[in-house]
Amino acid sequence: MYRHTRADGTRDILKVADYDPRGVSGMTLHEARERAGEFARIAAGGNNLRAIFTEKVQAEVEAQEVAAATKRRAEGGSLEALMRVYVGTLKGRQSHDDAESIFRLHVSEPFPELVKRAAANVKAEQLRDVLARLIDAGKGRTAAKLRAYLRAAYGLAMRASLDPTIPEALTAFDVESNPADRLPSLAQFSKALDRALTLPELNFFWKRVEATPASAARDALIACLLLGGQRPTQLLRSTPRDVDRTAAMFTLYDIKGRNRHSNPRRHVLPIHDDLMPVIQWRLDVTEGLDEPLFSSTGRVALREETVAALVDDIEGAMEAAGEIERGPFSMRDLRRTAETHMAALGISSDVRAQLQSHGLGGIQARHYDRHEYMPEKRAALALWVQRLKGIVQVAPIKRKTGTTRQRSVA
Question: What is the CATH number of domain 79-188?
């Protein structure tokens, strides 16, 4: 505090600053004494110290606000901010966590200087170096996904000023061109995978799943399989509200696809008798109707990586036991395996599509076909579960023409 006597003889006290011996969040004693000397010189000239002091403080506050605003604009228009806002637009979609993780691990952390640059000033050559780092490390598929996410983020920012459905925050980047457009698509790293477990591999895998100690991850894996090869990301979002025990039906919500995260498609599946005990157990241990059905903590949904790690452990045990015929496999191969074996059982492509909720985006499926295929789904799942457990085998049947076709026999 600075206390002084005005020219008219009255006393006045001005607050100089908060005291901080380090001089970080306030003034040191030495700094306060220097400020007091400045005040004494002003007052000695007969000036109105309070008015001058108030004006000075106001000017300092305004300067600080301008500096803060400048910093916010600089940070707000950065590549890092663009990635963050873009990830926010993916909230609720399957790609949200994937994009967030890829941006953090392969852009923000290894290229801290690049992400601070204004997004509008980032060059294609700089993004090329980001992708080259991944390709050199043997992560071509991740590089292709990163390129796609960057291209989508810049594309949204370019359309933001004209598209009212895009968050207003994306208008702040002043992006006029998309540097990711100049980068090659890296299609060679995005080839469709074709690994499917053979029938012996499938049977060995199921036996090991059954022998695995009880856990939420084991229950989720069993549900993915016995529901016909469902996507774990969809299954792990489910709650007790999605289960109808009376009708033995399980409802998933398919958000995969453009603009579907705001209006997911209901995907209703029959619960096979072999799955019902697992579902009943998950319902018994779940604390509330809105809690995740598959959780090891009761309140937080199980992560897909946890289920994938269990599959990797089983795959390793099978490899050590000589139970693998066609090389390594992972969680993502199980969905393809299910459809491949259901096709071998003679289950039509329409029913397989209804079971796995894919290929249903056409006009006929969206607007005209309201049949839920529940009898067909139940029959198909019954055959699939038998094959999974090693009860059903496939044997050739000779046609009258002399050719052969496949049939399922118990």
Answer: 1.10.150
Element (H, E) at 398: strand 393-398
Q: CATH 1.10.443.10 in the chain, residues?
A: 199-409
> If pLDDT is split at 50, 70 and 90, which confidence band does 363 have?
very low
Q: Is the separation of the CB atoms in 290 and 241 below 8 Å?
A: yes
Closest CA to 362 of 346, 350, 345, 376: 350
Angle between helix 199-211 and helix 374-388 axes, rounded to 10 deg: 90
pLDDT of residue 23: 72
Radius of gyration (Cα) for the chain, nearest Å? 32
CB 106 within 8 A of CB 162: no
What percentage of residues in the chain have a pLDDT greater than 90? 47
Q: What is the pTM of this model?
A: 0.58
Which of these CATH numbers, 1.10.443.10, 1.10.10.1760, 2.60.40.1120, 1.10.3720.10, describes 199-409?
A: 1.10.443.10
pLDDT digits (tens, 9 = 90+) for 20-69: 877 767 788 888 888 888 878 877 777 777 787 777 777 776 777 666 55
337: number of Cβ within 10 Å? 21
